[in-house]
Amino acid sequence: MQKFLSNQNKHCFILLIIFIQVFFFNPIQVFADLPNGNAVKDPNTILRNALPVKQVELQEIQHKLEETSNLIRGGRWPALAKTVTKCQSLLKKHQSRIKEQLPSEKQKTAEKTFLELKENFDNLQNNAKLKDKYAFIATRKEALDKIGGLEEYFLPSKFPYSIPSEFDNLPRLLGRAKVKIQTSKGDMEAIIDGFNAPLTAGAFIDLSSKNFYNNLPINRAEEFFVLQTGDPIGEEIGYVDPDTNEERHVPLEIRIPNQEETFYNQTFEELGLYTETPTLPFATLGTLGWSHSNTAVDDGSSQFFFFLYEAELNPAGRNLIDGRNAAFGYVVEGFEILEELTKDDTIISIDVLEGIDNLKSNA
Fold first, then answer.
1. How far apart are CA 198 and CA 94, in angstroms?
2. Is 115 exposed, middle or buried (0-12, 13-18, 19+ CB in 10 A)?
3. How far is the C-alpha of 194 from the C-alpha of 279, rounded, in Å?
């Protein structure tokens, strides 16, 4: 007579008993989980990563230094010191090659910047030794700003992306601009990115230079979500071009990393890119986004919004705005103003501080 349980069956039977005990007598704890999304939430980091530059040695130093963000939050000082040591080593290893790749007229400036970076890294080591969190953060910002400045030397001489000819009549920002946004609660500054959203950024800078946004109210305010403005006084809901007497429309415009072409008038849902993160994500407080209607993605005209990022409600890279609206810039100073603005407030003016030369009225 065959044995009721072979050795193999015995093992299976034992595993079955353990399974029943664990899953029936000790129910599984279920935790609500949100997708991780894009971990980068600092606007300056996003803007550095969005530059159309492929200088791998310099970017290696940048990314290694940016890794200290989580270490600072966790107070992991030995690991911070170790990471800074790695940055020092990378700077020593790569600076000659980086300098060689620069135009000759930039090399002397780069030499000075490398010396300043070396001093920054020495100070970071001292900050880590003293466990001085705020000094570390301030010095790291100085260093990353210098690295970003060096990266800008590697920008292509010509605009690196193509814009479909059907949009030849629209203004475009072929680079970046900096604006001051004066509100009834205080002032902010923002960087507008025409590299990755040339038509959207172009429309915004064009209207700002025309004083279109002066004294316009905040016409939509949703806590932890958006503050919207740009609706002109009167019956119109957008900018009417005086030359055509028609409302000017700006197409939905989104880039994703490592893609040659920008997507126009196609949402991520339509493209099947459900988990993709745009080059300019809605991932931080003060992301500037372009508004369009609920029925079309190509009818945005003048209205834009400030995204009020809330990590738990809007996980970066997994929210309902990435891939449906175009981001075109980020507030880099005056974030606290966004938390005070309501529908009772007004945009007093938007002034272009830098980059107006990058604005072209058409193709």
1. 33
2. exposed
3. 12
The three-state secondary structure class of 330 is strand
Annotated domain spans of the chain: 53-152, 172-360
Digit-coded pLDDT (tens) for 56-113: 999 999 999 999 998 998 999 999 999 999 999 999 999 999 999 998 999 999 999 9
Cα distance between residue 3 and residue 224, in whole Å = 67
> 58 forms bridges with which residues in the sheet?
none
Residue closest to 98 by CA, chosen among 151, 144, 146:
151
Annotation: CATH topology of 172-360: Cyclophilin (2.40.100)
What CATH number has the domain spanning 53-152? Answer: 1.20.120.290
With a CB cutoff of 8 Å and minimum separation 6, the contacts of 354 are: 177, 178
The model carries a pTM of: 0.85
Question: What are residue 117's phi and psi, to 5 degrees?
Answer: -65, -40
Q: Report the half-sphere exposure of 62 (CA within 13 A, side-chain side).
A: 23
Backbone Cα Rg of the chain: 25
Residues 6+ apart with CB under 8 A from 281: 38, 40, 46, 287, 316, 317, 322, 327
User: Are 227 and 305 a contacting pair, CB within 8 Å?
Assistant: yes
Q: How many CA atoms lie within 13 A of 217 on its CB side?
A: 9
Helix 56-66, helix 133-152: angle, nearest 10:
160
Distance between CA atoms of residues 266 and 269, nearest Å: 8
Burial class (CB in 10 A: 0-12, 13-18, 19+), 43: buried
> 184 φ, ψ to 5°?
-70, -10
- Determine whether 170 is exposed, middle or buried from the number of CB atoms within 10 Å of its CB (0-12, 13-18, 19+): buried
Q: Are strands 287-290 and 327-333 parallel, antiparallel or unpaired?
A: antiparallel
Residue 335's Cβ-count burial label (10 Å; 0-12, 13-18, 19+) is middle
